[in-house]
Specification:
- The chain is of the alpha/beta class and 453 residues long.
- The chain folds into two domains: 185 residues, Rossmann fold (3-Layer(aba) Sandwich), CATH 3.40.50; 165 residues, NAD(P)-binding Rossmann-like Domain (Rossmann fold), CATH 3.40.50.720.
- It is 49% helix and 15% strand.
- The protein contains 17 helices and 13 strands.
- The strands form three sheets. It has a five-stranded mixed sheet, with helices on both faces. It has a five-stranded parallel sheet with strand order 7-6-11-12-13, sandwiched between helices.
- A hairpin with a 2-residue loop joins strand 8 and strand 9.
- The longest helix has 25 residues.
- The protein starts with a helix and ends with a helix.
- The protein binds NADPH dihydro-nicotinamide-adenine-dinucleotide phosphate.
Length: 453
Amino acid sequence: MSQYVKDLMADVKAKNPAQPEFHQAVEEVAESLSLVFERHPEYRTAKILERIIEPERIIVFRVPWVDDQGEVQINRGYRIEMNSAIGPYKGGLRFHPSVTLGILKFLAFEQVFKNSLTTLPMGGGKGGSDFDPKGKSDLKIMRFCQAFMSELFRHIGPDTDVPAGDIGVGGREIGYLFGQYKKLRNEFTGVLTGKGLNWGGSLIRPEATGYGCVYFAAEMLGTRGQTLEGKKCLVSGSGNVAQYTVEKILDLGGKPVTLSDSNGYIYDEAGITKEKLAFVMDLKNVRRGRIEEYVGKFKTAVYTPTDPKLDYNPLWNHKADCAFPSATQNEITGNDATNLLRNGVFVVAEGANMPTTIDGVKRFLDARILYGPGKAANAGGVATSGLEMAQNSMRLPWSREEVDNRLRMIMQSIHKTCVDVAARFGTPGNYVNGANIGGFLKVADAMMDQGVV
Ligand code: NDP
């Protein structure tokens, strides 16, 4: 680690105590940017990175609501407006009991670079609440979403800040949030993305993160003259990103064999087919059940419950070619990375945000596998949100093919940026440097142009 990064991190840790995920995200980017600062000291003089690290604005608010039993509940709501140098703040809302300021700051920070890579004019933001939607009735979810939006509506708008979904926030929640925004503002605008198709949503938005991640993996494989055909794939999670990752792996001839939720994972040696995926989609999106039920239905699969005592995740300990972590942050530790490499995995495309620890990332980079970090590999979701915003502004919807083609082209462009920039800065094949530097340069130049604001 260079002296510059050491000093920067000491300052970040002192100013932002007890935010380990935020420290982790900043450290990874700062390491890559050391290469840029050697050639472009003007960015250091202008303290561009130091400014990006400090959110432009943080909004923290009380979310009081009344549950089905008439009891008053209080949650905490957040919106981090991280950087608006290249466009309105853009990034998802996460509803999960693990949500803290530090988690949302890491996500907002990552989002700045990711959004820049998409080529679309979007700044970075993130928000959410420590509310746990799991097992709650639709009525409770609606009441909570309305209470959350009753404060958030003051701070967002189609040209200011455009939230979307993330963990725990899917189509149902976006619907309730949009309804409340519209009522309070008396305006029908493209203020949220991930909307329903009948009221301003875009075709392919639900599929986009998973599809985009697989397109990115296919591009990486292409650099070695290979395709996904016949490749055995480990996928974690079973939510939005995981589901459409599995669907696109199947479309491109790969064989997905795992899925998980926070209670455990399934391994299906025969492969997860389209039919089995339809069962999972119904289980997770309609019946809102647990992944364990998969083995009751399909006898080719085995279920392994999560064991917090283990220092590795057995999901990542199967023979395979590719891994698509699609659940949550830090789900691949150093031990998991070692297991993946030992089992023959040579493609890792991150659907989730920062699913690999710094130790795990180092092992992937040392092994010179095709490792696509989340800010590049999962950028298809926010890119398609950007396409939803464009359609909302035009008041004209595009066809499925049109949006899918644009998504594919954007993923190809992000891949090319990563490859070109990594090579230009002397680290060919290093997608981490490619994504961090590629995302940074556009934001940094915009900030230089706009002065110290
Ligand atoms: P969903 O809520 O739809 O699904 C999340 C999945 O991950 C569920 O299977 C959930 O299991 C599992 N999970 C969540 N937290 C944990 C945990 N702490 N330990 C183990 N499993 C966990 O979310 P998404 O699919 O939308 O998001 C998944 C990841 O992708 C996140 O990192 C998100 O930030 C990232 N992402 C999402 C985008 C999008 O467009 N939705 C865009 C870009 C990135 P359970 O149900 O048991 O909690």
